[in-house]
Amino acid sequence: MKFDDLFEQRSLVAAKLKECIRDRGYTKVSFAKKADISRPTLDKLLNGYIDNKSTFDKHLQKILSVLELSVDGLLLFERTPQTIDAVYSQNAPEDYQMNEKAQKQYGLLMDILDLCEIYY
């Protein structure tokens, strides 16, 4: 696909960029700095909201340069499957239940993880 045709497929480009940036371990803030793009502009790109073709082209070229990808490489990009090592105990009794304090702490940790996903 030609670089000029990407503007018409902003939503596809946005989805692929999100996948690629996450797969490479960047946060939005760190990637925006590395690509020399403002965070709000990066957000617009990642959501497919840029309606100016020259702005879109200029910033997409910066992004592809940082990611070391071609246009075709971006469009064909597939996320690397992640494996997660889970640690658990087989020694806990079957009827084990967390006490109230542990439930609150666990809930707080899950809320923090949810916030991190929002700002990633």
Main traits of this protein?
DNA binding; elongated; Helix-turn-helix transcriptional regulator; Cro/C1-type_HTH
Describe the protein in words:
By secondary structure, the chain is mainly α. Helix content is 59%, strand content 0%. It has 6 helices and no strands. It has helices at 10-23, 28-35, 39-47, 53-67, 71-75, 100-119. The longest helix is centred in the C-terminal third of the chain and has 20 residues, at 100-119. The radius of gyration is 20 Å and the shape is elongated. The mean pLDDT is 84. This is Helix-turn-helix transcriptional regulator. One of its GO terms (molecular function) is DNA binding.
- Strand tally is 0
The poorly predicted ranges are none
| Largest beta-sheet characterization | none
| DSSP helix fraction | 55-70%
Listing every helix as H and every strand as E from the N terminus to the C terminus, the arrangement reads: HHHHHH
Strand content bin: under 5%
Mean residue pLDDT: 84
What radius of gyration results from the CA coordinates? 20 Å
Task: Report, as a whole number of angstroms, the end-to-end distance.
Answer: 29 Å
